[in-house]
């Protein structure tokens, strides 16, 4: 029996360099693992349409955990295996609060991602965005969404949230017990349905695929990765990870610009790269 059953990896801040590219050395490690029958699976906060370019590089034919576990997406079949949405009441309260407080927010439905039409980093016509440099992806403008409560919503993102704004948000919506709050980056507050986390997502997908999580390796860098890191038998976080992840992980490896996946496999399972 191989010592490693599978790898679940976050993308931004973890597997991907700061310029959002995949290092050839980590890609070679992925190929080495795949050649031994060890699948490498994406577990990301990204919408499945925005994670697609990285999936196409990694390959392997396995589904991905996207939207922090809100959507388990099968790229080969071209549809979600599972999606778990926020209640319309939760969507109404979060979006209503954001509008009253003058906060930006983005909406992910199971099919599409909707972003701020005034974000100058985005080119809606050409499908160009910082998360996918040089690759066209499909995303939509919030102007095209209309009433958010008329849609099935798997995740809401509130960017640029400082500590005071986060505390005000938590206080205003503390009565709602049907929401899961987390962060995928500095000031990037993300709202899913209660209990929906990457940890929940990898457990669901591992059970479906017959993968032993006690022999799985996970990699992540931020708070939305914490439940995943806690769910697997082995975990590695890059040096740029937040303190809570470093405390929870099996080991800390070099930062996301220095091949954390390769370093983790070399440290924990060197025989797999021989």
N-to-C CA distance? 17 Å
Q: Low-confidence runs (pLDDT<50, min 5 residues)?
A: none
Shape: globular
Order of helices and strands: EHHEHEEEHEEEEHEEHEHEHEH
The biggest beta sheet reads: 6 strands, mixed
Strand content: 15-25%
Gyration radius (Cα, Å) is 18 Å
- The pLDDT mean sits at 97
Count of helices? 9
Number of distinct beta strands: 14
Structural class of the secondary structure composition?
A: alpha/beta
Share of helix among residues?
A: 25-40%
So what's the oligomer here? single chain
In the sheet with the most strands, the strands line up as 8-7-6-9-11-10
Summarize the SSE layout with pairings.
Elements: E1 6-9, H1 11-15, H2 24-35, E2 40-42, H3 48-58, E3 64-66, E4 71-74, E5 79-83, H4 88-101, E6 106-108, E7 113-115, E8 140-141, E9 155-158, H5 163-172, E10 179-183, E11 189-193, H6 198-209, E12 216-219, H7 226-231, E13 234-238, H8 243-248, E14 251-253, H9 260-268
Helix pairs in contact: 2-9
Provide structural commentary.
The mean pLDDT is 97. Strand 12 (216-219), helix 7 (226-231) and strand 13 (234-238) form a beta-alpha-beta unit. The chain has 274 residues and is of the alpha/beta class. The protein is globular, with a radius of gyration of 18 Å. 44% of the residues are buried. 31% of the residues lie in helices and 19% in strands. The strands form 3 sheets. It has a 6-stranded mixed sheet, covered by helices on one side. A 5-stranded parallel sheet has the order 2-1-12-13-14.
